[in-house]
């Protein structure tokens, strides 16, 4: 009866991920959240994730580009990749994104820290084998970052589609963890005479580097305007995700 | 006999990690390296890594701060953390760092890519239980990033040392993978009329945010000068590692 009630409550929660021992935050609970909105905002602010999976008891942590559609995360790779044979049947996976936002210098070693935003997502990763879904995904990975760009590209070939694996992982559970504040030791150690504070860091878009072989007369298209030099990449990527969701 | 020769060759190589199926690059070999120098330079350019480990068949991918001393990687965490019971006996671990350096826009979806620097390190992670080593590590995690800062801090307490776990992982094997160039499709698709090139990104230090409760008269110390606003964090961190190695 308790289990039935628990399952029912999980199904009824449409705005947060269910919590179990797998994704429950073990420490610094005040930094944590299980809300869809918080998890998605962190996922959408990045294009690079780290995927953990296990082959014969050995864990691997592979960095890769990823994207999100609804509650499913996607990434792709070569059809020759290491994890492929495990992905046909589905393999337990943890996909994490984390962004460093600042270095936190306290008056004690113990209270040194970092500002960051991270999201850990759990699920079963599987190959996308349906051809229509796979083609959709290979357009989405372009258009999610660069609005409508796929329509302007040289079309995909059957060989390219075959050579690319697309992996999908519906998010079963997730947690977000954020630290976004100044040092926390003012009250306990504030009288200790050492400088304390935050050195913020952010990832910034630089000046474009056009292909040296660019056809004469081709200007950078206006659908890349959001990637203006000096802008924060995380903010651009959140805008691009919103634009993609509006358009699809 | 073949095995003996192979083992001997690995031992004789003092500048590269041994290669096996675990760390051999499966694709894009031209981007890969097993040299200590290449792997260490990528590790030293970052303070955030992702650690993959397995508990009861479930992979976890945890972002955390880390540092390097020689061929050993260290990170720390709460003594209440999830992986602690596994760390007493030692657990197979993969520690990865990856940095996004640019968005690569090609004339086809297939050739879209990213510029990046990544290093995957394999080993067995274990708790540092020796007290002298643990205290050294807790000073190193400060001084590796902020030269000589630990001497100016409020001293560690026995309770703080007890509440902190330090984890060490000697690197058994590693691989580095780097893409650092413009689009690669000039010859095959250069005549297709769409803009192509790289949008570079970099992580930059911002203006300091002193603690609001900073004691009057405390200036930012000169040993933080390398973290000047506008500088690239990766370059600062490489300098700080070199300074730490010179001083210790």
Automatic annotation (TrEMBL), chains A, B:
<protein>
    <recommendedName>
        <fullName>Nitroimidazol reductase NimA, pyridoxamine 5'-phosphate oxidase superfamily</fullName>
    </recommendedName>
</protein>
<dbReference type="InterPro" id="IPR024747">
    <property type="entry name" value="Pyridox_Oxase-rel"/>
</dbReference>
<dbReference type="InterPro" id="IPR012349">
    <property type="entry name" value="Split_barrel_FMN-bd"/>
</dbReference>
<dbReference type="Pfam" id="PF12900">
    <property type="entry name" value="Pyridox_ox_2"/>
</dbReference>
């Amino acid at each position: 009866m308790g289990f039935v009630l628990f399952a029912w409550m999980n199904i009824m929660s449409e705005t947060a991920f269910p919590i179990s021992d797998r994704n429950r935050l073990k420490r610094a609970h005040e930094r944590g959240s299980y809300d869809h909105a918080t998890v998605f905002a962190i996922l959408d602010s990045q294009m690079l994730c780290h995927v953990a999976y296990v082959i014969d008891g050995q864990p691997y942590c592979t960095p890769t580009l990823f994207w999100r559609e609804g509650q499913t995360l996607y990434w792709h790779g070569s059809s020759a990749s290491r994890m492929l044979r495990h992905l046909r049947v589905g393999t337990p996976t943890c996909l994490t994104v984390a962004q460093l936002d600042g270095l936190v210098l306290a008056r004690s070693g113990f209270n040194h820290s970092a500002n960051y935003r991270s999201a850990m997502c759990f699920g079963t990763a599987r190959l996308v084998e349906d051809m229509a879904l796979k083609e959709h995904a290979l357009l989405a990975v372009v258009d999610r970052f660069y609005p409508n760009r796929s329509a302007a590209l040289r079309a995909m070939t059957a060989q390219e589609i075959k050579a690319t694996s697309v992996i999908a992982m519906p998010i079963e559970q997730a947690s977000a963890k954020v630290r976004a504040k100044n040092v926390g030791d003012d009250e306990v150690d504030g009288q200790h005479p050492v400088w304390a504070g935050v050195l913020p860091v952010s990832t910034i878009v630089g000046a474009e580097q056009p292909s040296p072989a660019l056809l004469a007369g081709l200007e950078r298209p206006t659908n890349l305007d959001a990637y203006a030099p000096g802008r924060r990449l995380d903010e651009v990527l959140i805008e691009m995700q919103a634009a993609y969701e509006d358009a699809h």
